[in-house]
Write a structure and sequence with these properties.
5-stranded antiparallel sheet; globular; about 0% helix
Length: about 375
C-alpha cells in the first residue's frame, strides 16, 4: 500500500503568460508548486484550457494509484487550485502524455502503458468525460517497446497520434551474434470511437521522443522529434517530419549541429506555408553554452532564418513553447539560468515574425544573434 503522505512536485504553469487559441495574451499572477516528500514525485506534461478559465492537465504520478507510476489527470481552477484529480493505470508503469478536447465535451488522451497491451510499453489511447472519468481505452503495440506521443484532431474530426516504435532482433554474422534495434516514428490515425484508420511507420536512425505535432494547411502533418542523425553519442538533434494527409512522408530534415545537442520543442505553422520553430541550440565549441533557438522553415523544410537568444557565449536558456499573439507577433516561453540565481527562471520573450525582440521578462541584457550554421 502506498503511504498516506506523498510528494507532489509539479509546476502547474511553466510560464507566466500564454496565448489562447484566439491569440490573446493571458496574464497569470500565480505560479503554484507542491512539495512534500522527495521520495515520491509527479509530473505534468500537457494541458488544455477549460471554459471556466481553468486547466486540465495530464502526466504521471507514483504518489497514488494502482501501480509503480500511473497516468494522472487533474483539473485546476483559475488560481491553480486542484479541483479534482484521478489516476488511471495498472500494476506496472503508465503515463499520460497529451490531451485534446473532443466534440462531446470530454477529452482524448495519449500515453504509454506497461500494465496493459501486448508487450513491454504499448501506445495508449484513452477517452475521458469532462470530469476525467475513463469511458474507454485502447492499446496498440507488439512485444517490443512502443511509446505514445503527441495527438491532434484534424479538420475531419479524426485524431492523429505521433508515437514511437522499436523493433529488435538477433542478427548473425560469421563471427558474432548481435541484437539490432530499429527505430520508427509511428503515425496512428483514429476515428472518434478509437478505431484505427491509419498505421504508418517512418524509420529513423535513433529516436528518443516526439516533441510537437500539428496539422498543416494542406491537410498533412508536421512534427518535431529528438533524434540522433547517425547514432552519434550525446548529440541529439531536431528531426522535423512533414507528411501528406495519408501519413506518407513528404520530407524529413535533421537540423542542428551533429556534434552537440540541438532540440526543437514547439512548432507554429504560419499562413504562408512556412513554419516557425522554437527550442534550444548548443555551442559546438562549448556544449555547456546553451541558448534559446528560433528558426523559420519554408514549405520544403529549408531554413529561411535562425537566431539565438539569451546570454550568448555563456548562457543556459531554452524555449519550450511558441504561440501567435492577437497583435500578430510571437510569444516564446521557456527557462533561463543565470549565475548567482538559484534554479531556473521563467523566461518570456515577445518577437515579431522576423524574430526581432520586442520585450522579455527575465534577462537583463536582451541579446539576439543571427546564425549561420
Amino acid at each position: 500500500m502506498k503511504p498516506l503522505y506523498f510528494t507532489l512536485f509539479c509546476l502547474l504553469f511553466n510560464f507566466y503568460c500564454f496565448a489562447n487559441p484566439e491569440g490573446q495574451i493571458i496574464q497569470l499572477n500565480w505560479d503554484t508548486h507542491y512539495q512534500v516528500n522527495a521520495q515520491e514525485t509527479a509530473y505534468a506534461y500537457a494541458h488544455v484550457p477549460t471554459s471556466d478559465g481553468g486547466q486540465i492537465w495530464v502526466g504521471k504520478t507514483n504518489s497514488k494509484g494502482a501501480g509503480k507510476t500511473d497516468g494522472w489527470i487533474y483539473k485546476t481552477d483559475q488560481r491553480g487550485t486542484v479541483v479534482w484529480e484521478r489516476t488511471i493505470g495498472g500494476i506496472e508503469d503508465d503515463v499520460l502524455q497529451d490531451i485534446v478536447p473532443t466534440d462531446d465535451g470530454g477529452f482524448l488522451l495519449s500515453g504509454s502503458t506497461n500494465s496493459k497491451g501486448n508487450g513491454s510499453f504499448d501506445v495508449w489511447l484513452l477517452k475521458v468525460n469532462i470530469q476525467g472519468v475513463l469511458q474507454w481505452h485502447r492499446t496498440h503495440g507488439t512485444k517490443n517497446s512502443e511509446q505514445g506521443g503527441r495527438i491532434v484532431q484534424n479538420s475531419n474530426g479524426e485524431y492523429l497520434m505521433a508515437a514511437t516504435r522499436q523493433y529488435g532482433n538477433q542478427v548473425m554474422t560469421q563471427t558474432e551474434e548481435t541484437y539490432v534495434v530499429k527505430h520508427f516514428i509511428w503515425l496512428l490515425k483514429f476515428d472518434k470511437q478509437g478505431n484505427l484508420l491509419l498505421d504508418e511507420r517512418v524509420p529513423v536512425n535513433e529516436h528518443l521522443a516526439i516533441t510537437d505535432l500539428h496539422q498543416t494547411q494542406e491537410g498533412g502533418y508536421i512534427l518535431s522529434a529528438i533524434s540522433n542523425t547517425k547514432g552519434t553519442a550525446n548529440a541529439e538533434n531536431a528531426l522535423i517530419l512533414k507528411t501528406d494527409a495519408q501519413g506518407m512522408v513528404a520530407w524529413k530534415r535533421w537540423i542542428g549541429n551533429a556534434a552537440v545537442s540541438d532540440m526543437i520543442h514547439s512548432i507554429l505553422p504560419m499562413n504562408n506555408n512556412t513554419y516557425i520553430l522554437a527550442g534550444h541550440a548548443s555551442n559546438k565549441h562549448n556544449p555547456a553554452d546553451v541558448n534559446g533557438w528560433v528558426l523559420m522553415l519554408d514549405g520544403m523544410g529549408n531554413i529561411i532564418w535562425q537566431k539565438l537568444y539569451g546570454t550568448i557565449g555563456h548562457g543556459l536558456e531554452a524555449f519550450h513553447k511558441i504561440e501567435r499573439t492577437r497583435d500578430h507577433h510571437l510569444l516564446l516561453s521557456g527557462q533561463s539560468y543565470q549565475d548567482g540565481i538559484m534554479g531556473n527562471q521563467e523566461w518570456i520573450v515577445k518577437t515579431n515574425y522576423n524574430g526581432d525582440i520586442l520585450w522579455q521578462n527575465d534577462l537583463s541584457q536582451p541579446i539576439t544573434s543571427e546564425l549561420n550554421k
